[in-house]
Write a structure and sequence with these properties.
Rossmann fold, two-stranded antiparallel sheet, 4 helices, globular, P-loop_NTPase, nucleotide-binding, GTPase activity, GTP-binding, GTP binding
Length: 108
């Protein structure tokens, strides 16, 4: 697939093209309930070609978790001006007050 790890990335992907190309294209929802909360996980695309879908997903969220690739060169690219930092600006515009950003290095 050309990716260092795609182990769990496909779990919420439903479209055939998402599985074939190993990228999230459309938002996916996964709902569950705890004793205190109704929780909906929204998986939104990270690719800039699908930014409209990112906006759709982010505009529905109360909080967000942004997972960046943390391999050599990948993390630097993701936090560049044209990288995932653009997503953090969208979250602020939509009124999302809580954003957790973390990196994942699949080689470790």
């Amino acid at each position: 697939m050309g990716k260092s790890s795609f182990k769990y990335a496909w779990i919420l992907d439903k479209l055939k093209a998402e599985c074939e190309y190993a990228i999230t294209i459309d938002i996916s929802l996964w709902k569950f309930e705890t004793s205190k909360y109704y929780v909906t996980i929204i998986d939104a695309p990270g690719h800039r070609d699908f930014i409209k879908n990112v906006i759709t997903g982010a505009s529905q969220a109360d909080c967000a978790v942004l997972i960046d690739a943390a391999g050599t060169g990948e993390f630097e690219a993701s936090i560049s001006t044209n990288g995932q930092t653009q997503f953090t600006e969208y979250t602020r515009q939509f009124g999302i007050r809580h954003l957790q950003q973390c990196g994942r290095n699949s080689s470790k």
